[in-house]
Give the backbone structure.
Amino acid sequence: MRRFAVIVSLLLLGPSPAVHAAGPDADVAKISPRVTAFMQTYCFKCHGPNKQKGKLRLDTMSTKIADGTVALAWQDILDKLNLSEMPPEEATQPSKAELANVLETLTANLREARRRLTDSGGHIVLRRMNRREYQQTIEQLFGVPVDVSMLPEDGKVDGFDTLGQAHSFSSLHLERYLHIGRGVLDNVYAGKAARPVRKRSEPEGAAKKIKEELPRLEKKIKDYDKSIAQGKKGHDKRQAITKEEAKLSKAYLARPETTDGTLLPFRGLNPSTFIHIGKVAPTGKFRVKVRCGVVSDKPRDDIFLKVVRGEFRAKVPDELFVFQVSGTQTQPKIIEFTFDVDNIRSNRLAFERRHTQREKLERFADSRSYYFKYQQVAHLLEDELPDVWIDWVEVEGPLPRDPAPLSVAKLFNGDASKLTDADARPTLERFVYEAFRRAKPETAYIDKLMHVYTEARGNGDPVKAALIDAMSVVLASPRFLYLFEPKPDGQNRRPLTDRELAVRLSYFLWSGPPDEELYAITKQDRLRDPNVLAKQVDRMIASPRANQFIEAFTTQWLELERLDGIAPEATPSWEYDELVKEYSRREVFAFFATLLRENLPATNLINSEFAVLNGLMADFYGIEGGAGSKFRKVKLPSDSIRGGLLGQSAILTLTGTGERTSPVERGAFVLRKLLHRPPPPAPANVPMLDEESVGTRSIRDTLSIHMSTPQCNSCHRRIDPLGFGMENFDPVGRWRTQVPSTDGSVQFKVDPSGVMPDGKRKFADFLAMKRHMVQDKDAMLTGLTEAIMTYALGRTIGFTDQEVVERIVRETADDDYRLRNLIIKIVSSRPFLSK
Amino acid sequence: MKKIDPVSRRVVLRGIGAALCLPMLETFGPSTALAASKTVASPRRMIFLSYGWGVARNDWFPEAAGADYKITKCLEPLARHRNDFSVLSNLSNKRASDGHWGCTTWLTSADVNATPGKQFHNTVSVDQLAARKLGIETRFESLELAASKEDSKGAGPGLSLSWSEAGNPIAGETSPVGLFDRLFGAAQVPLEQRKYQLRHNHSVLDAVLSDAKSMNARLSKADREKVEQYFQSVRDIETRLNKAEDWLDKPKPKAPFDRPKGNLTTSEEVKLMYDLMVAAIQTDQCRVFTYRQPGEGLIRELGYKVDGHKTTHCTTDSEAYEAAIARDRQRAEQLAYLIDRLKALKDPDGTSMFHNTLIAYGSGIRTGHKLRDTPTLIAGHGGGGMNQGRHYVYESNQTPLANLWLGMLNQVGVDAKRFADSDGKLGGLFG
């Protein structure tokens, strides 16, 4: 049929451009006739056949954007229109609607042109391990964690850190790789005998300290009596605070529970309980047990134990944990968890009873205002939640683990002290082989390493030190740092070898090198067998190492780093604290992990009949049946607002400022992530809205300004309505029916009605909007597929990939949108299997 | 077909190695390097300072042109140096295209979309061109400093303000402690040991090069570009090492202050970076600096709960705008401090080190998404002959920022006729 059409046109038109359109020009983006029609009306009069004002003629411009020069010329036209520089005032003006439409179309045309002009042609640029991958690689090879904060940061493309295109290398990199690598080797091969730690802390000493402190407080109170008499300003308030402190201390000591354990009321009055194991060798995973319960007759589900990892008074904790306290003082239970001791982050753990108002109160902690401190103490007296009683805390570690391939156990058979010069070369060979992901190094390279070794020996270094010298060179060599897949110029696209495929796979799902099983399969050349490949993917996803992919991918795809900038104390919610912020992030990880590991439909990202919650998040959302310290699936009622990503606090918070929601950011987020209709970035140089004196208006009213100018309207008519549909969520994702004005002085009723970006399907509220979105699930799946492929392949997904992406999306849709199967389809696709 | 090996044998044999992880090698103390160049004029230096998100729109730019302009609220902390800097209004990187990229093309004036087949391609930054000449005698050709990514929002892509000749981002040093160690970190080691380390470093680099070369032979052109960056990094360290060899038996300069401790506030970090720049100048280890400065941290430290982006999208009666003014003033204070420090130091010919330095300070964003008529300030006299102490107002929307970069290059003695989209010289400022 198509061929026939071409022949007809040949007959009718002869060798015309229409013929070429089926040929190479098919790849070239074109300017839409809507734009040229507009220009015919408003531009050609002065820039056409009759007149060429400013020596500019537009009617003869190519509408095929075959190269950057043509694109730039059209960009100039778009800029002029955006800046309202053209048509000039005295000329006929287009209507607002006409202008908005042409701006939108021309912007879209130019984006498409850019996409085609910058197509990678399927070539994956040689890429370096990024910081995360370097860290994982060291950890897997040596079994120790490494501090990478001194490595330069990695560039990103489209938010992803796996693209070689964005990775640079400079002398600073080389210096740091050598330096950090040597540090790792010194640490691992230091030769000190492993000394496991086991430490139990019986915290009743707290009472003793408080007792000792009392006389000091009493003296202070007396001293204030004198200074108040002398008329010293503010000392009455200071005395009041000290009196409260003394009162609370006495009350604490009067409690019988303090003789055989410690009580955790809200901190600030009593020392919080902590355990510190100092710097330990060797590093590794440590287990913590806390025997504790709520001081209450019956168990409760609203009391949480907060664990802060960090040095005393550190501004930012190294890690935060929260656990549901399900035992009682009479029937305590043991809370158990593990943490990674790396001697980089602090090894001090402090235990507190979670107090939701803590951050709000601490907002004043730095201020020297005694008034606020007084308020703080006064507030505590009203703290009616029961205390947590801790019997003891125990830390034990490092927990035994399989020896890493380059550990002393494996590389030196457990003993590095009896090495001789004869061992150097074979040891280096094995070291390089493993570090180069089991690729055989060249003899010449080993010779050079041996030269480093002998030179160090000649300088008087012992065998081991000289070996470490040479090994640190390996950890800065290109074939360690780059994921090397050779392909010289002129060679056609080739299938990956099994070993290369295993490496690509493990850096995709684990951000680190393959394990023994994966390597073993490559030895038999079986990895490309579709069944074997699928089985390996299943196994890899089930492994905890896949958390690397889950966390890095969701963080980068969903822009979760934007949460970092949210200050809990600036939010309008008393319940939103650092813990909720941190665990809302983990909720997204846990949700995505559930879809992936249980192979559930990806459509759950839009709407789901369940949420994945721990006790803390369930408590925050007010959802029944979610109690517990671990994240798990909780069934939601059918009319719940919490299903899918858009019901999750992290997503709803990161799209705002914490203080206020931003319907624009939220709408743009939905377009980018769930509707696969990314809006263009805000055009440069377009003047900002006059935002002055909108204080008492509602945000919806304020943003209506967007609709009044075509330059804004052309994009915002698609963006803002989606954001309005989510206005029932406050800045941290709680449900609300009222929304404050910009200056907070007036409350308005939320109006969540709007229209989908097609301009046709209207919705009355958030749930109705989501129902429309579910209909657009293939668009979501396309966006998700492209995002995962970008991350997995380490290159942008462009025009060349359209066919592959469409096929994967179609097959996944037919396969009930199952997420793990989507991953299998991606790794079985030609782009993933070939170089 | 076979590409010529980018690293010649001769260079490799000259002895490379690096500061690397080994004890620091020689640096050039003022008593040596500067004394040696006494017959020539005092060295010229350049410092480039920039940040994202623009400035407080109504309180940064002065109104009247000329020498009698009234200093604005944001620049007021610089008043004591009034005769030694100028505000330049209405300079633009006309080809800048992303409203959220304040630093990416500030020093390159590039059109990053103009290279076919590449989604993004930057070009060499002006500091790197200057460093080719100014850096010949110093241990570091140039030093690039940067606030962390989290603290440089609104700066746009890049790892510092600097871009290499091939258009690749140059990694910025984000840690003041790291910078201190690079400048002064070495323990004193005996001469024999230093000689060994130089030789040994050569062997180290020789080994990594052999790996890079064998890889290179089996890659396509696009991939070789990546390995080329690796080669370049080795060459850069080589250059540094070759200089070290020449100065092997000279005493090394002492650090002018103790090794800084971690856990700094943002303003302490900026001050320390400035102190380290001054120390590097004082010991003549480097003459060209760029510094991509922090933003979010300053705002937080000043007690405001707004993010940097908000400060550029706000009403002038809002808390965010107040934060923008406070931040801009803080930055001006820090700059005034840097100028104080440089004024207090003397070059061998008796002029102040500040006199022989040019400091460019500004952002690629004016406010909001506006990339035209961006805030620009230039301090120092670049060795003399400048007309400082004025507010220059150029033609709005039309005058390329690259004209300033070109003028600065010429002022410090780099013979260039054009830079990026420059179309002439800036009237007045350069005499």
